[in-house]
């Protein structure tokens, strides 16, 4: 989808699809196959070729601005159906890996506002980096304006590179862009004021379906990665909680240091996989048993039930009690 959007904008600038793909060295047949998957390298090559052939270093902003939330598949639907901005942000962080390949997203509260920072995991030339990140940030900013149409404060896009000498920026009245910044991201001033505002597109039933699809996609992200599959299979909740990293390493015939390094190579860590298992098992225990929430918290390894409640609210946008009540009502 992202490659196709760049091709459409480039075509409007007089660059044919054939010329663009030839310059990017990406076979046209790859895009004809609905089940095909364009690699990160091929995607970046198309983005770079589009910027070079159009002579517009800001083309990423225009592509991102045109991209509807539905272009992001199930993740886009999840964000549209969330009940509040806080829930949408939590879900974006949780499922970012489905669309933000090789780019890390972090959301931090600063001076009463929020900063959505993007950091590439791979080394890219500065010009290519800016095209890639500007397309992502342009889409994120447009998505914010779509799901929060009454937002009075306009977020800003920050980029690290130089301002383009020529070319189009985002439409007038849209999102302002700052260049030569120390980091790339979106700055939303005073955002904490609207975090709990209800979203006009909220839909609990559709959210449940979209979440299930995101979880299926997440489970299939790396079907050939034996290590991740093995670690997930071993992270089973027992009478004494989950296995420790040392226990996992022993079962996999690895040293703890080697296990940690191999997980890092795959963009994962023990803590993130543990949180994934806790999230999975917390929903199962809440939905399939009458166990007290404090006991569930203890089983999952939370020293304080308040910490479990805080973590669960970050996962699902509501407290464990509220989620259990909602599930009982649906039954």
Quick one: overall form? globular
Q: Summarize the amount of helix as a percent range.
A: 40-55%
The parts where pLDDT drops under 50 for at least 5 residues are 167-173
Number of helices: 16
Alpha-carbon Rg, integer: 22 Å
Polypeptide structure, described:
The chain has helices at 2-12, 17-24, 28-32, 40-54, 59-66, 73-81, 85-95, 126-147, 204-219, 226-234, 245-251, 256-265, 270-288, 293-299, 305-316, 320-330; strands at residues 103-110, 113-120, 156-158, 177-178, 185-188. The model is unreliable at 167-173 (pLDDT under 50). Helix 4 crosses helix 8 (126-147) and helix 11 (245-251) packs across helix 12 (256-265). A five-stranded mixed sheet has the order 1-2-5-3-4, covered by helices on one side. A hairpin with a 2-residue loop joins strand 1 (103-110) and strand 2. The protein has 16 helices and five strands. It is α+β, with helices and mostly antiparallel strands and 331 residues long. The protein starts with a helix and ends with a helix.
Which key terms come to mind for this protein?
single chain; 331 residues; alpha+beta; 16 helices; 54% helix; globular
Compact description:
With 331 residues, this protein is of the alpha+beta class. The protein contains 16 helices and five strands.
């Amino acid at each position: 989808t992202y490659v196709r959007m760049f091709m459409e904008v480039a075509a409007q600038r007089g660059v044919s699809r054939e010329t663009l793909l030839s310059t990017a060295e990406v076979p046209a047949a790859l895009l004809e196959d609905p089940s095909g998957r364009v690699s990160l390298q091929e995607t970046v090559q198309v983005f770079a070729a589009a910027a070079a052939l159009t002579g517009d270093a800001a083309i990423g902003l225009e592509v991102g601005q045109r991209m509807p939330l539905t272009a992001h598949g199930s993740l886009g639907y999840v964000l549209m159906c969330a009940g509040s901005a806080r829930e949408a942000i939590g879900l974006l962080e949780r499922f970012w890996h489905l669309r933000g390949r090789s780019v890390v997203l972090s959301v931090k509260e600063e001076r009463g506002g929020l900063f959505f920072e993007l950091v590439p995991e791979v080394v890219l030339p500065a010009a290519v980096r800016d095209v890639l990140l500007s397309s992502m940030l342009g889409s994120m900013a447009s998505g914010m304006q779509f799901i929060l149409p009454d937002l009075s404060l306009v977020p800003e896009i920050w980029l690290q590179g130089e301002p383009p000498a020529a070319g189009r920026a985002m439409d007038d009245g849209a999102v302002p862009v700052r260049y030569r910044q120390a980091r790339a991201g979106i700055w939303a001033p005073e955002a904490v004021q609207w975090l709990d505002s209800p979203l006009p597109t909220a839909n609990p039933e559709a959210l449940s379906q979209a979440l299930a699809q995101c979880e299926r996609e997440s489970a299939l992200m790396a079907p050939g990665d034996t290590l991740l599959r093995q670690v997930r299979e071993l992270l089973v909740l027992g009478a004494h909680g989950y296995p420790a990293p040392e226990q996992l390493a022993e079962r996999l015939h690895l040293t703890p240091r080697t296990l940690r390094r191999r997980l890092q190579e795959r963009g994962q860590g023990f803590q993130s996989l543990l949180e994934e298992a806790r999230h999975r098992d917390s929903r199962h225990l809440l939905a399939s048993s009458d166990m007290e929430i404090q006991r569930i918290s203890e089983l999952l390894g939370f020293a304080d039930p308040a910490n479990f409640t805080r973590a669960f609210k970050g996962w699902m946008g509501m407290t464990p009690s509220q989620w259990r009540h909602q599930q009982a009502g649906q039954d």
